[in-house]
Amino acid sequence: MQHFAELFIASVLLAGLYAAMAFGLGLIYGVLRIVNLAHGGVIMAGAYAGWWLYETVGLDPYLSLIPVAAAAFLFGVVIYRLLVRRLPRGAAGGVQSLLLLFGVWLILRNIAYLLFTGNDQTLRTSYSTKALSLANASISVNRVAVFFIALAILLFLHLLLRKTYLGKAIRAVAQNPDSCTLVGIPIERIYALTFGIGTALAAAGGLLGATLFPFSPSFGSAELLKSFVVVVLGGLGSIAGTAIAALILAMVEIFSILIPGFPVYLTAAVGFVLLVLVLVLRPGGLFGQRVLG
Amino acid sequence: MTVSPREPAAAKPRVPRGPVLPWVSRQALVGLVVVVALAAAWPALLHPSAYQKNLVTLTFLYICTALAWNWLGGYLGQVSFGHSAMFGVGGFVSARILLSVHVPFAWAWIGGGIVAGLYALLWGHPTLRLRGPYFSIATIGVGEASRLVFTYWEWFTGGSSGLSLPIESGLKARLYWWGLGLLAIMVCASYALRKSSLGLGLLAIKSDVEAAADVGISPTFYQDLVLFLSGLAVGVTGAFYASYFSYIEPGDMFGFVQSISFVLMSVIGGVGTIVGPVLGAIVFVVLRESLIASYPQLYLGLYGILLVVIILFEPLGLMGLFFRIGKLTGLVRPQVVAKAAPGGTGAVRE
Amino acid sequence: MTAPILRAEQVAKRFGGLKAVDNVDLQLAEHEILGVIGPNGAGKTTLFSLIAGSIPPTAGTVHLGDRVISGLPAHRAVHAGVVRTHQIVRPFGNLTVLENVMVGAIYGKRGPAGARERAIEVMEFVGLGDRASALPANLTLAGRKRLELARALATEPRVLLLDEVIAGVNPAEAQQMAELIRSVRKSRGLSIIMIEHVMPAVMALSDRVIVLDAGKKISEGKPQEVVRDPKVIAAYLGESAVKAPAEKPA
User: Is residue C127 in a domain?
Assistant: First the structure.
């Protein structure tokens, strides 16, 4: 039972990270109807950016979230303005945007190889190995910090989408871009900002991930798949749905080790199996596909 | 029901039909025969070096993979980033067959291909009901998971030390002919899938799945069928690859780079066309030999830049360029171009 | 009435809490043209989707002859002999007019043999004979509606479901389309259910009309009777209109 509680807490903590990583992917898809395949690349870039800032100027990874997210936001806006905007919208643009953003991902990966080699890196701070003890269980300080920061990011997004003019405009564009043009919402600017926000979220998620796991230039493809599983499970743009879906994924991953004889390397396939199960059983997602509802 | 006697001239079927294979136009058939004849005469006439001959054999192989990828990615608009999974399964199954029983390698290739096709159905049947981006992301997962799982399954793949196949003398020289034969089959199959009545159905699914179902097409069946065939063909080429190098290793066979190259070859040449992937594969091999060999640390970025630039400026790749020239000179009809549209063109909105 | 060719019994479709189609009964006789009218959002198109297999009903069954076709996937419904057109036309934009119709002929009831000839014949029948190699984008809206009809006819159905094939085209084209629908029944012997907003067309073409409102069938009968039904007038114009003598729709 003790073991069970520990695993449950570990799942909740991991779920925070997954939710933060996934939300950007869902947001961009909900508003632009484009799957941002560069998402995995940005996650990887965020991890390296945090690591580099810590190694060179000694900036604490949690503090570097702000400059890294800001830089990623600008990167996202630039990618939108320079590349994505030029693609046709709708079905014909689908394949093209996939391939184009896949290309961006490859470029990011290659840059990482050139700058930092293909070796695994770890972000180790003075408190990396510290742990809290809570009723005989010990929980890594980092995991708790990541969880609360992820929670804070999601809360911030919730307020942004619900309470601000920008957030309302984003939700309106997600629902009906044509009528937004009619009422004078600058739709192109909303698209660019959304792409920027989604990219910033990916980078923040990558940085948070880097404080927990080792990473290399190929970091990000498993995370992209996990983000995708969360989006399909939880629906688009619903924070509660995203959180629950992230928890389900994290629990399935972590609890799979309880199955006797379950080979650890298959954990990588767990997310995919979950995805297939959802697709077969609930093609509309667990909670129906709400678009920023 | 009879054909109306006062059929206007404009309604006359304009697609010429060859007598042998009803779906292949006469020009295409002649073209294919000429190309195969040239490739067959080349070793005897010009006495190429072993290096040149190997390069051409590999090009045959890459053309086959590009064509097979294009059946799914081009004809149906379902872009797969995980085709290395079937390439690897085909390679390792055929290797295991060759290592355990004494059969001609062609049988092992077919065995590998069939298992690869079934493997594709295993993950593809549930995910293919998703159109477009959803499917594509799922394939990234399939590729990654397959690579990890098969690397760990040492009893099957030999793990990171890989598998060595029995070496036969003179095999590489023979494989040139096998490669040429495989290429001819793949080109014919590409025509069959594109120009036959089956091909019309695939184009309809690509354009609008629901409308296709509403005129009697089962999207599930035909998408599964194409995925199986595509997996089978990629599996057979994987098996060819294994026989050719007589050593395979899961990190290479199941590698992300394999999947990318399948995508890239089609994109360079023109997704959804028949000639495109052939040209794309040739350009890809030339590019790899000249550029990548000198700057191996830059190949991912180069692939990425190629993808970005082509999609931005000419989403139909080389064929798009030809179409442009053709339109200017009036040689290519817009109907031909429309069929190659990269995504579903969707409904025509009023 | 002889045994109906198509029979829907208590079909219903709920989307969450919304009853889009609420226990509707419907019979279609051989060679009949049945009009389906109702205000926007009355559930007409959903009813078509239930009959044509695009979506499974929550409750109830649809029979074609002795066969239950409700719950069949769309392509199986086509093979059984029921085909629909779409209100917003959905031609395959990457195929020519002839190829669009050929898709119907190949994948419809009769299969690929002779599909080209059958497609050409249908194309001539709907008046698109000279546009065989055009792309759908180059047709007028009326032309695309004819294409939608031709593609459906090419599957050789017994029952044709027409979703607003007349609405949106100019009066002359509407007249031609109405003629075409009549000849579909006359020379091809089909039974037709048509959703239509253009009242003169419904009045002129339909043998019988059913009226849907908020998912429920509120009236059924000869066109002239139905438009005088107070319930129908109320559905279209609001309760207050019932008290004043209703004007006959033009």
Answer: no
Q: Which domain holds residue C77?
A: 30-90+157-243
Total of domains in chain B: 2
Q: Do the chains contact at B217 and C75, CB–CB below 8 Å?
A: yes
Name the residue facing A99 among B267, B298, B300 (closest C-beta). Answer: B267
Q: Are B270 and B220 part of one and the same domain?
A: no
Say which residues have a Cβ less than 8 Å from residue A275's Cβ, sequence separation at least 6.
A225, A228, A229, A232, B127, B138, B141
The predicted model scores a pTM of: 0.86
Alpha-carbon gap, residue A189 to B230, rounded angstroms = 41
| Structural domain span for residue B318 | 255-331
Q: What is the predicted ipTM?
A: 0.88
What would the pLDDT profile of B266-325 be if each residue is shown by its tens digit?
Answer: 999 998 888 999 999 999 999 888 877 788 788 889 889 999 999 888 888 888 888 888
Q: What is the DSSP string of C72-110?
A: S-HHHHHHHTEEE--SS----TTS-HHHHHHHHHHHSSS
The C-alpha atoms of residue C72 and residue C76 are separated, in whole angstroms, by 6
Q: Both B181 and B293 in a single domain?
A: no
Residue type, A45: A
Residue whose entry in the numeric block shows the structure tokens 């579903």: B344
DSSP E strands in A141-267: the ranges are: none
Residue C152 maps to a domain: no
B232 lies in the same domain as B259: no
B31/chain A closest Cα distance in angstroms: 30
Chain A residues with CB under 8 Å of B302 CB are 110
Q: Is residue B308 part of a domain?
A: yes
Q: How many C-beta neighbours within 10 Å does residue A175 have? A: 13
